Fold each of these.
Amino acid sequence: MNGVQDAKTKCQNSNMLLLISLNFFSASVVQYRARFSYLHMKYLFFSWLAVFVGSWIVYVEYSSYTELCRGHECKNSICDKYRKGVIDGSACSSLCEKDTLYLGKCFTAKPNSQVYSGSWGDLEGVIKCQMEEAPHYDLGSEMEPRKEAVAFNKPTKGTSVEKFREMIFNHLKAKVGDQANLADLATKVLSIADANKDGHISLPEARSTWALLQLNEFLLALVLQDREHTPKLLGFCGDLYVMEKVPYSPLYGISLPWIIEVWIPAGLRRSMDQWFTPSWPHKAKISIGLLELVEDVFHGTFGSFLMCDVSATSFGYNDRHDFKVMDAQYIVPEVIFQEVIRQQRCDVDEDCLYGADCLTSCDLTKHRCTPEVTRPNLAKACDALKDYILRGAPADVSEELEKQLYACVALKGAAEQMEIEHSLILNNIKTLLWKKISHTKDS
């Protein structure tokens, strides 16, 4: 009997252990399933979030692209006017008939001014086209350029070449002031207007040229066409024109997605902009080019110009490290700037700002802006250059170069009021740089 009782007890114990094991296993399975379900839901949530954010970014980028990049609309508009005989130019046939002038990558920053890379046969260029409304300065107008649709209705039918020359002369006089050699500049314009070089200027050619004359960049290219700082004009059709390509731009800086940009401290961002720049001797040559541009536009052959956006994005350089202007929209004739700005109503000095860099003061007795800029072109150029040229500068010039650059940045008032100091600092910086690279192949 005792043996049977012991056997029953052992069996009961075994059943109990099995039941406990099964309960433990079941609890483990339930816990594992709960944990797996949590991880699965977490994975699904973050996957959905990534897809949503990615789709939103793609949508925003695509919307921005389609809103900004309307080059083909611009081309269709220009070619329609060309086929109707309204406009003509050296690029019209290639753009509209032969299809040898192609619009490539879009670099447009503002919808009304289309900018594309382009190829024209064996030539690489930059194609610029005004969409519907083009910036147009007018005396006595508001601070921002007044917008007018380009109708290509000037000059009118029956206008003689001499009358057209007079129109050009008066327009240039209003733009750059009464300069002694304006007649020479008018002759340059007429030579460009004869696009097919047949010795005659047709009405469609004249209308294209007149539309181009309204643009600051075209005017500056004319004024500085004998200098190396502005890209060469390769051709035009209406107010669409093709400029020589500048291989390296902007002058410095790296482009980052905005979602990364917002998390980077300003100090680190400025340092990052200098990571991918040429060797110091090459930077010295490029910097000298910018300083020479300042000289050229200050009391130049055809009057003075103000540089109202002296940022790295406005400039670039070529394979020989020659400095080039990328965007001359905000390099404006001083005469026009002063006429426009003095009509601007203001309550504080900040109301008297044009572009990023042309600031005047507010006359609170009249609530009108004064015509003289607070900083000369040279101070703005040195501000743009100081981090660029001081990084990696040789030890034997670094201290003196820094001293001259900061003296340059501190320049105030119109350049006419401090012309001697202005010229002295500019020449000191150029001399420092030239001495260091003049004996090398980089010069």
Amino acid sequence: MAYYGISSNLVLYLTGKLHQGTVKSANNVTNWVGTIWMTPILGAYVADAHLGRYWTFVIASLIYISGMSLLTLSVSLPGLKPPTCHQANIDDCKEASTLQLAVFFGALYTLAIGTGGTKPNISTIGADQFDEFHPKEKAYKLSFFNWWMFSIFFGTLFANTVLVYIQDNVGWTLGYGLPTAGLVISVLIFLAGTPFYRHKVPAGSPFTRMAMVIIAAIRKWNVSLPNDPKELYELDLEEYATKGKFRIDSTPTLRFLNKAAVKTGSIDPWMLCSVTQVEETKQMLRMIPILIATFVPSTMIAQINTLFVKQGTTLDRHIGSFKIPPASLAGFVTISMLVCVVLYDRFFVPIMQKWTKNPRGITLLQRMGIGLVFHIIIMVIASITERHRLSVAREHGLVENGGQLPLTIFILLPQFVLMGTADAFLEVAKLEFFYDQSPESMKSLGTSYSTTSLGIGNFLSSFLLSTVSHITRKHGHQGWILNNLSKSHLDYYYAFFAILNFLNFIFFLVVIKFYVYKAEVSDSMHVLIEELKLMRLKTSNREESRE
């Protein structure tokens, strides 16, 4: 709720209170949101390598709260914001001072550092509470990420409706103060449950272990691989069992990395790595092409709180005497997502289970693929809707003055609703996929892949917006994206996005053709236990025969 309570309406605060233009405000939003979703890489590293998930989350929560508190002060104190301006052209308004911008953006980016430690770890802590080797708990875990996203988006719905309304109609102080108080309460509730959690100790830096494998393989590039994978270096079964870790057998994919486990006489960890360490590295590298395929749809998500909201400001927002805040339309993304997640989990999965015999109904990559198709449809609809909005502006002579159009804001509803449907498929599957396919010792890093996708998507959105705006204004042309949206050509911009999504979907289909799912951990552990029993039996038999 805290994050979405800020991001949903941030573009309007930047334009209305800090007097920034369309491109600059949209880019400031996407750059900040991009940072929000990129910092979890750092949080995942700290959790997996040093502090563990629990303490990383607790410390990051304190930083998060301090950022929220400072942000609330920056929108409350008169000296920390420029004077109110009622000019139609924001270029005529007084700009915010360096100090005012420093405090406001300093608070935003302090908050971003805090979320870096909370986002990759809180969902992972939740998933860690399920025992992979207990049939009932394992079955519950299959639905965990569906319901996790359900709870997240329930808070988002409150932010997109109640908080946005308060910010627009009551004041920004209360609008930011409420999510700050909510964040404090939620952290206290989390701390109250501490004695009941299953805590997992940090397993060392995942980046260091991966680097060891890559460097060892490069240093032994001219060494031949043995025909029998069992000749590769591997730790004893007992060592894995005593540490509660999982052994992974060698696989034929990315065979070059297997050279890191070839025995050459050296025991230097930068020259010799175990098969399990090699396979962990492979698992993380195999997911990178899938990660790249999620960048473009993440760029589409960035439009919800930027250009989609700016479109809403040009339309008739009245229902009787009630005036709808433009950012509240994002609530329909949430409602759509909540409904679709419930329908998916309760109806779609049981039906598909009968056909596919897959416990999830369909594979995670198939679910992501359906979400990608929705993104193509969304941008086609957004382009058509924007073309209609521009035609109404021309018919009523409202192009030059950028006045409000006699057109209901609900014409934007289809693109918001379908975005929620796409999230129910793509975003939930993406989070579960990167968690599920990560090695046990790198779960936080795997979860951060999902947030990294959103971060890069937002930075990509900033890059595309600036680039397209610059290119289309060359040679005396008017440009596609202006402060006056009625003189802009967002319909062309959205059509460009539709084409980009189609090309990305083709790339995704090529990538998944070569992807191999990792083996079930519980199955691997079952094999490990059986092998240990067999080894102990053989040892005891030898001892008995000697006697």
Amino acid sequence: MDTTSSLLLFFFFLFVIIIIIILNKIYGLRSSSASKTKRIENVSTHRHGPRFLQGSLGWPIIGETIAFVSSAYSDHPESFMDKRRLMYGRVFKSHIFGTATIVSTDAEVNKAVLQSDSTAFVPFYPKTVRELMGKSSILLINGSLHRRFHGLVGSFLKSPLLKAQIVRDMHTFLLESMDLWSEDKPILLQDVSKTVAFKVLAKALISVEKGEELEELKEEFERFITGLMSLPINFPGTQLHRSLQAKKKMVKQVEKIIEDKVRRAKNKEKDGVIAKDVVDVLLKDSSENLTHNLIANNMIDMMIPGHDSVPVLITLAVKFLSDSPTALHFLTEENMELKSLKELTGEQLYWNDYLSLPFTQKVITETLRMGNVIIGVMRKSMKDVEIKGYVIPKGWCFLAYLRSVHLDKLYYDSPYKFNPWRWQERDMNTSSFSPFGGGQRLCPGLDLARLEASIFLHHLVTRFRWVAEEDTIINFPTVHMKNKLPVWIKRR
């Protein structure tokens, strides 16, 4: 894309964001800034009391959104945060996307908020996302229903049974894809990883893995996910309307799958049926709140990581390894050694083989730190909350900006350098490393994300040598490669 096109795209996004903000104000999503400012200015500033939150609410209506988006599109997306952190401290007030917001680049404050229950903080998403997800989405529900749903899904996704299935499926799907790779043209690695990850997730969630059913699901899902960054206007012809219609079709498709499962299980003992996917797990639960419609809607929402997070993690790992020959050499040697050992003993590769590769796991951890697949997490305060001396007023949005923490020299030496060796003696279980969020809403599929990335990298380095073309990481509105990371491969 040339410079003129890039500028036009940039100003188009600014225009869209300004329209969103104005519409949010019309719909009453934005509370009175004056009353909120008054509340925060009444906070005591005595030496041992709560700290006065400094910052700026920016221009009327648009706040500091333009400055935030401008930095998000730049080569240094956290510059918006860095500038204000120097002026106001690690926690400051702002006004972005039509909402008065407390922004935190403090690891301990972020951890405290993310670990809080729904009496203090609840999930917060833009209006468009809320409409597409629906009120019963696991991303939005709170209390006992959320704990039940999250617990059931999390336990299954962590189970050895599913991990063994993921290994088999990744092996099958990668062989189907890699056998067709040509040495005469570049492979778009981001597209390949996205296709494989979606197949794996669709099978793990609803046991759909091939054929017309999968293609129809993937096609409708692409229409659905396009609307996540659209204007909050729902009438025929708008992107939001098209996305909502696509989700309705997917929900009907998944509800049909659920009905077929229920019909087949009627003549079997309920406790004797082994759960093969997430739907099976939820159907076995006796809770009346877990209706077929709620299950179907949430299966669609849970497909989003397969479209975004896992493929981006894989793609960024290949990107960073391509730019770091020493790290690539160590990772290749480690995986070639494992492959040779298994060939010598005649054993299969199991899920714990992949996850026990120490340097491979360090590469994935460092990719999560530098790549920041999830750049931040938003919450809304349900009451005035004091954390580490800072007061987060009731009704304000809270943005835990994880990217700034992961790239902060306070926590990491040479934070912009890809250095997997930094994790040799460093503990991942710290507040300064939270690539998947935290607390009760910690991503239940984080172990599977690591496993899928480990398997993909193993097959890639043991079967191919490659050279990646120059490409740029785009960090907004989602993290992705500008040109989908073209790589030229040579078979070993």
Amino acid sequence: MSASALRTQVPRWGCSRARDWTSYQSLHTTSRATSKEHVKVLVLGGGSGGIAMSARMKRKVGAENVAVVEPSEMHYYQPIWTLVGAGAKSVESSGRPTASIVPSGVRWIRSKVTEVNPDTNSVRTDCGKEITYEYLIVALGLQLHYERIKGLPEAFDHPKIGSNYSVKTVQKTWKALQEFREGNAIFSFPNSPVKCAGAPQKIMYLSDAYLRKTGKRSNATIIYNTSLPVLFGIKKYADALWEIVRARDLNVNLRHNLIEVRPEKQEAVFENLDKPGVTKVFEYEMLHVTPPMGPPDVLKGSPLADEAGWLNLNKETLQHPVYPNVFGIGDCTNLPTAKTAAAVAAQSGILDRTISRIMKKNHPDKKYDGYTSCPLVTSYNTVILAEFDYNGQPLETFPLDQSKERRIMYHMKADLMPHLYWHGLLRGLWGGPGPYRTLMHLGMK
């Protein structure tokens, strides 16, 4: 079925009344300022977590009792942007119209959330609409803050600089890589929480492979400047990555944070976090920027947030500790695990069960163990598949050493996982590999 055909199945409420959906018009008043609606389950955010939970809630309470608030017309499978930035996939393959992925019959409110008031079970949108709810699922993702680096985002108007973290800049990465001639290729990791923490170095390995393939590697000095004190947070996989770094003559500088870009001079300024105030200027022929990231503005300072502005949750049940009818999933939360689509998948299954129990006045009985996964792309045909839990312990699905580079894992990343995302996770049918892990390890994991 075409996206346009699917779009007609999704009740869409924006800032003006949806005249073509007469069955819902009675819920709108003639004044925007006093427009009110009520829904049983309200989902904030139409990213991977929001759409997955909308699909699960549709099956639980019926489509007519679920609404999702999301301003964007397009939905993107962002994990594939690593390969887009290296020329292995097209940016067009990463996106689909939001109307085509919102579960049929679920109401899509095409607005931005501006206020959440859990004391009155209500939210407000940027068009003055007030929506009340019985149950709230917060899936607002996180914000990119390029502007916190001096010279950005304006520097993206210049050549030789890109970022795989935005649909607006991912193709600039590929262009900079293709046009590389001689000098430093620099890759940064910010001093903040990030989504897909492996992505900043994945593009480094792919760039190394591309430059070798095109005969330019001998003219390149590849530099990975990370604010972290480690190459990767899980030792088993970090040890394997250090071996690759040494074998491929890659330069890694720990505790180096990008604070300024000077595109006219092709210079990047990094601060040494172990020596505050001490900076070093690097010239670049290619620069890949991973921006600082933070919680959505609407959560900061709200009753739902922790001191840092992230959605405060019980890390096992994904329920808010103060407001029992509020739940969360994904990047906007303060869950102490890596922010990835794989984590969202595992969380969706647990959260589905938690909400079912709460709706029946029972206590949650399933616990999220922090499972997350990072397919560390190390070339155009190899991946190290990192999987781990809250404790930083490997939680591997397959009965083999996943710290080894493998071709089969690359094909999982490039070909299988996108299919699983569009047709499994977003339809509320994929809750992570837990059952398969148990099967493959004969019930011992």
